[in-house]
Amino acid sequence: MPKDHGIGASSKRREDVRFLTGRGRYTDDINLPGQAHACFVRSQVAHGRLNGVNTADAAAMPGVIRIFTAADFEGVGGLPCGWQVTDRHGAPMQEPGHPVLATGKVRHVGDPIALVVAETYDQARDAAEAVVVDIEELEPVLDMKAALADGAPKVHDDLTSNLCYDWGFVEENREAVNKAFEAAHHVTTLDLVNQRLIPNAMEPRVAIGDYNFATDDSTLYTTSQNPHVIRLLMGAFVLGIPEHKLRVVAPDVGGGFGSKIFHYAEEAAVTFAARQLRRPVKWTCTRSESFITDAQGRDHVTKIELALDAEGHFQALRTETYANMGAYLSTFAPSIPTWLHGTLMAGNYKTPLIYVNVKAVFTNTVPVDAYRGAGRPEATFQLERVIDKAAREIGMDPVELRRKNFITQFPYATPVAVEYDTGDYNATMDKLLEIADVAGFEARLAESKARGKLRGLGVNCYIEACGIAPSHLVGQLGARAGLYESATVRVNATGGLVVMTGSHSHGQGHETTFAQVVADMIGLPENMVEIVHGDTANTPMGMGTYGSRSLAVGGSAMVKATNKIIAKARKIAAHLMEASPDDIELKDGRFTVAGTDKSVAWGDVTLAAYVPHNYPLEDLEPGLEETAFYDPNNFTYPAGAYACEVEVDPETGRVTVERFAAADDFGNVVNPMIVDGQVHGGIAQGIGQALLESAAYDEYGQLLTGSYMDYAMPRADDVPFYTVDHSCQTPCTHNPLGVKGCGEAGAIGSPPAVVNAVVDALQRAGHTGVTHIDMPLTPSRVWAAMQG
Amino acid sequence: MTKVTMTVNGKAVSGEVEGRTLLSQFLRDGLGLTGTHVGCDTSQCGACVVHVNGQDVKSCTTLALECEGAEVRTIEGMANPDGSLSVIQQAFQDHHGLQCGFCTPGMVMTASALLAQNPTPSEAEIRHYLEGNICRCTGYHNIVKAIMAASGQDVSHLGSDAIAAE
Amino acid sequence: MYAFDFVRPATLDEAVAALGGEEAQALGGGQTLIPALKQRLAAPATLVSLTGLPELRGVCAADDGTLCVGGATTHAVVAAEAAAHYPALAALAGNIGDPAVRNRGTIGGSVANNDPSACYPAAALGSGATIRTNTRDIAADDYFQGMFTTALEPGEIITEIRFPVPEKAAYVKFEQPASRFALVGVFVAKYADGVRVAVTGASEEGVFRWTEAEAALSSDFGAGAVSGLSVEADMMIGDLHGSPEYRAHLVKVLTGRAVIAAG
Questions:
Q1: CB count in 10 Å sphere of residue A467
Q2: For residue B13, how far is the Cα from the chain centroid?
Q3: A612 in the same domain as A677
Q4: What is the pTM of this model?
């Protein structure tokens, strides 16, 4: 029987009632008294010298309160980058400035130039159009390889080139890897593109600045995955507001997928404007604007080579990747193609020698940063594609080739500097073959054929490093922040609990899952636990929700704090029952003296803590509230195996996903229903990447896919029902819940499954020259591939 | 400014609007009914779907003045009269048909319109009907499942469901 | 959107008068126009809503076998009410956009806009329909004059579109994956005096008739009749969703499929 409450139960989400009845409270639902509205004047060209901004006519338009230009932001800091990567020669990356409003030059379409504040949004937008911007257009830098050529125009004039860094990992292995390739029995090479994507959380970004000049308190309401990080970055680096005078509130957040991690110029601009104007200033992003301002994802151009021996054992792996940073360094941008990508190149396999080279490049495009999976999808895609290609080249079943090379002993230290604590890759592969009914594929193939359709099967594995991350480790790797989480558990006199967590939800159901954990530990009904998050004023410091880390790191902090509560409550119970704390047992919310029928209820103990008439005041403080911070000592390593079956229309090239199965090992699972949902959503995003989505720029640096008219979002009829399973569980060994994280897996594991399946379908139909098609596999691309 | 009068969730309302005021703006800013969301500006995402005279329409692509005299229903008017969740809303919760909740109002309004026309839609009919509603979180699996369940179909083969917590 | 005045006339005469004003523009269901206004691609001084004119709404079968559809009739109504008379037209209407768009968008709005990827122009041209306005009747062959270009004069209102009902017909749309407009759509209609084939989505010149296919199908109405033909890629649209060659290829494939679907 499945559990009906606590850890392991598919508890209904408590968030849902407000969302289903229109009572959610998203940032755009907030309107403050006296609020003014903001609209940004943005660059319409990709690259240009900004010779002047004339606001005179615009300032005289109806309703205009003030127009801010870069001159107003003199003395204000630029947007900081949170990670410094060191290149393979030991030099720090090139780090350009990132002003709140463009200064000197505009560097991508959408770069903010001025901020118009007016009484209404329409007035602000009308006036924004009347701002006259004098821009001398410059040749844009768009293609990464061209950007590195001698004489290429520079995105940042003060840098030596458009190269942010040239990173080698592990640099000391470079020669050994090259030698292994020279000696290899077989080498498989694949050139591929992991195309740029746009995260497209359904809630566009919103920022509202507020300022109380009487108290000098600033408040920012924003659509953020990590309000504390925004407070720290914006307060300390941009606006110079001490954290205790700055509050950042992220209420209900309508999805993020990474794009709401970063500190954006608009947040600083409205907070600054509100202080200047002594009025709240609200900015609501239109979807069109989000296409050219939200940090984008992926955008790698890679050559990967795999060396194998005569039996198919992997001997060495070598990659060269060009990673697009866009025009500026977004908050975590430098870490994505390096530490979140290079460290995953071992995958699930015991390849002894690996060398990863990444050249990060500035271009006149929207900045690129973490998007669901962040570096790990790029690693998984190239590795699982090259393995599939190798299997075909050496005539081995792709599943058998993978199994032959699986890591089977744990812990396992990879040649790319991480140590996997647990895993069982054969178990997830076995489970996958079962739930995907791979045995039935031939029959389905025949049935497709009878209808004139091609059919293919793609299988692959993935591993990711989640639960980001040990602070001491990431500090060595260049992170300018710690990556712990924290929680305060407050028990009220009448026994109810409030858990204040620094983690924040943007759709993951934290209010439900976290309550399950804490309630389970004490043995209380879940509805006795309330979760508070999203507001720096009433939660302890948190580093944010990304990298599948909230339960593994934030949940662990909560467990630590709850254990402190239990320890203290046990002492109070011991006092009340005149027993030794060592003899006190806690079960189902009741304290019992072991071996006796003496007991006190949870509520008796909590009441005693706040009404300490009969209380060991000499040994214990009154009250029952504890805080804990948790800093993990390793990443977690979720892994799994995915299978996709596609049909291809041979006349049109249209691909349809007929079946999709995922067997994941997430370690222990708190709420299976929510975990299923996370995997479903990730798979859809992966199918979207594989078949539909692409942020494409033209030769002028204009985004061709700047709306849903051209950027193809997965719709309900683009995807099938998925078969997902997470019964293979090798619990994480180093966090108290044994959890690994599930938020990104689907998006990491699914793109290669889809592409492998399409290539398989084409190969089976005799298109033996088709060994790869770059994503997205649009009908037109697949048709062109079939034409040879 | 022009006065517009309509019935929203059974209540007569009126307000002063411009010609360019969209129904979504009138609902959100004029009436404070912020359950109707705006997720795009090209009429594709469907987060803004409401019912006008019983039909599902995109309130971000309908002028408020076009709704003079109309009966409008929004997500705030979808629960049962006693405040409990309607069958569709309950199915979305039971089958985890929402995550961040932003597209959810439009999904519920669209699903409700579908079931009014087609009480027992097939999986394919549901997926087709949702063409104008984009969800980035759920991968649609549990939305389709919830709508099937709301129409009384057996969905027990389609993965984990909520268990009533105490 | 830029500011504009909004009027909703109750009679055709009032509407015509309103459209005679400076920078006045007709508003059908608004499903294309309002998004364009939001992007500030147009700046009308007055929007004249045609949704308040009952005489512009509805579907009826005339005695001569023609199906008449009022200019302000929504796609959803056409999908429901034309089904018994002209199933291919009803099916086309029932697959435009999405359900919410179909509840607002109108046939007159679509045909007046003449988006190169819209469905209705293919039906109108493929059926040899007559576009009836407040001033005249225009044959579809004369009406569609290239991308977003029609024979309509400023202020002219489409009151009705009259479709001769064919013996057999079908429309097959291959959707652009993002917009779900037609990457290519082919409407095939077989009449006693011949076959018409109209193609939308494909050409830089908007909806067009594929006359070679018409000739071939008029003598032999079967998918095989077009298999030997080829379509020139020269004037086809090329964009990130498909090359001119791909679109040309699709024209042929979809024409064959439409013939099969027509039965």
A1: 31
A2: 20
A3: no
A4: 0.98
Q: A776: cis peptide before it, omega within 30°?
A: yes
Which residues in chain C have Cβ-Cβ distances shorter than 8 Å to B132? 97-101
Do B136 and A31 count as a contact with CB atoms less than 8 A apart?
no
The C-alpha atoms of residue A183 and residue A549 are separated, in whole angstroms, by 41
Identify the CATH number of the domain in which residue A378 sits. Answer: 3.30.365.10
Cα gap A423→A411, rounded to integer Å:
9
Does residue C28 sit in the same domain as residue C70?
no
Best residue in C2, C27, C51, C104 for a mutation probing chain B (most B CBs within 10 Å) = C104
Q: Are A326 and A380 in contact (CB under 8 A)?
A: no
List A356's β-bridge partners, or say none: A169, A319
DSSP label at residue B34: T
Whether the Cβ atoms of residue B104 and residue B92 lie closer than 8 Å to each other = yes
What is the pairing mode between strands A132-137 and A48-54? Answer: antiparallel
pLDDT interval class at B164 (50, 70, 90): low
Query: Packing angle between helix A745-764 and helix A672-687, nearest 10 degrees?
Result: 50
DSSP 8-state symbol, A205? -
Q: A473-476: long-range contacts at Cβ-Cβ below 8 A with a sequence spacing of 24 or more?
A: A474/A339
ipTM for the complex? 0.98
Divide the 788 residues of chain A into consecutive groups of 10 and give the mean pLDDT of each group.
87 98 98 98 98 98 98 95 96 98 97 98 97 98 98 97 97 96 98 98 98 98 97 97 97 97 98 98 98 98 98 98 98 97 97 98 98 97 98 98 98 96 98 98 98 98 93 91 95 98 95 98 97 97 92 97 98 97 96 96 98 95 98 96 98 98 98 97 98 98 97 98 97 97 97 98 97 98 96
Q: b/e map of C111-121 (b: 16 or more CB within 10 Å)? A: bbbbbbbbbbb
Of A630, A665, A700, the residue at which a domain comes to its end is A630
CATH of the domain at C120: 3.30.465.10
Here the tokens at position A552 are: 């593994």
Range of the domain at A428: 297-469+634-787
Q: Return the pLDDT at B166.
A: 38
Chain C residues whose C-beta is within 8 A of a chain A C-beta are 1-3, 39-40, 174, 177-181, 183, 239-243, 246, 249-250, 253
Answer whether A784 sits within 8 Å of C179, measured CB to CB: no
Chain A, residues 335-374, CB within 8 A of chain B, namely none
How close is the nearest chain C Cα to the Cα of A609, in Å?
A: 58
Q: Among partner residues B57, B63, B133, which is closest to C103 by beta-carbon distance?
A: B57
Is the CB of residue A507 less than 8 Å from the CB of residue A255?
Answer: yes
Inter-chain contacts counted by CB atoms under 8 A, chains B and C: 78
Domains detected in chain B: 2-77 (3.10.20.30), 87-150 (1.10.150.120)
Question: pLDDT of C161-187, one tens digit each?
Answer: 999 999 999 999 999 999 999 999 999
